[in-house]
Structures are given as C-alpha cells and as structure tokens.
Write a structure and sequence with these properties.
It is a single chain. This protein is an alpha/beta fold. Helix content is about 40%, strand content about 15%. The protein has 7 helices and 7 strands, in the order H-H-E-H-E-H-E-H-E-H-E-H-E-E. Strands 1-5-4-2-3 form a 5-stranded parallel β-sheet. The protein is globular, with a radius of gyration of 19 Å. About 25% of the residues are buried. The model has no long low-confidence stretch (mean pLDDT about 90).
C-alpha cells in the first residue's frame, strides 16, 4: 500500500486519483450527450436516411468560404439570437462546429442555441478534423477533399473501431 501511495504522489497522472466508476460513468455519459465525433457526423450524413439533426457552422463568412461541411447551415455565433428561429427548426437537434479543437466557438454556439431552447451537441474536432479525416467539404471554389491524415483516421478502413 505504501509503495502504491508513494508512486501516486510522484506520478502526475495519479496525483489526483481517478473518481469512482459510478462518477466516471456519469461524467462520460454526460460528455457523449453533449459531443459528437467527426466520423459519426460524417457517417450519419452519408447514410441514405435523414440524420435527424442539422449541422451548424458558427464561423465567420470568410471562414465559411474557406471551407465548410456540405449541407451545413451557416450562422455565426454573434447572430444566433437574432437569426436562429428563421434558419433552424426548434424540433430538430443541432450539431455545432467551429475551426478545431483549439477553438471553443462551437461550444459558444451550442450554448447560445441551448439558451434559446434548442437541443444541441458540439462536433469535436471542428472543421479541422473534418478536413483532416478526408471528408468532402465545400469552398467558394466548389467541393474538395483532402487525403486523410493517418494520425487522425484509419488508412485502410472506414471504421476506427472505437
């Protein structure tokens, strides 16, 4: 026991010990209720059926023109309170995104929509990971696709197994 405690004190990962399995299940379950994975969004949009949600790009017009998810609604975060009711059906869940994991614009957009009564999720990875995983996107010049980055997507499969 003492050697285990000593190892934990010097170990930066275990300096704050993990919470109980029940607390972890509650936390990670809640996280999945608020977040969507880029690959899952792409798979749902590629299926023949209605995905049951709308994708919202919360970036500026200049950013939208650089590239966006085909079929996404463009609504910068600053305009959500004013324009959401004209562009979005309150009965349809919204998946927000911004630039990438270093940007919290998708979370700010999700908050603004939730405050208006919309069901929302944020797409983790944002537009950066959409493009890095090799999914098609639109620019002001038309549709494009990049080769998938092998550090973000499986090379020989459509399924990462997670």
């Amino acid at each position: 026991m003492t050697s285990q405690l000593t190892a934990s004190v010097g170990n930066p990962v275990l300096r704050v010990p993990p919470d109980s399995p029940a607390a972890a299940a509650a936390y990670f379950g809640a996280s999945l209720a608020f977040h969507a994975d880029v690959s899952d969004v792409a798979a749902a949009l590629a299926a023949d059926a209605d995905p049951g949600f709308v994708v919202l790009d919360s970036r500026s017009t200049a950013s939208w023109d650089q590239g966006h998810i085909p079929g996404a609604v463009h609504l910068p975060t600053a305009l959500i309170a004013e324009q959401a009711r004209d562009l979005l059906d309150p009965a349809v869940p919204v998946v927000t995104y911004c630039w990438g994991p270093g940007c919290n614009g998708g979370a700010r957009a999700a908050l603004a929509l939730a405050e208006l009564g919309y069901q929302v999720k944020e797409m983790l990875g944002g537009f950066e990971y959409w493009a890095r995983e090799g999914f098609e996107f639109e620019t002001w010049e038309g549709r494009r696709r990049r080769t998938a980055d092998p550090f973000t997507a499986p090379v020989d499969s459509d399924d990462c197994g997670c």
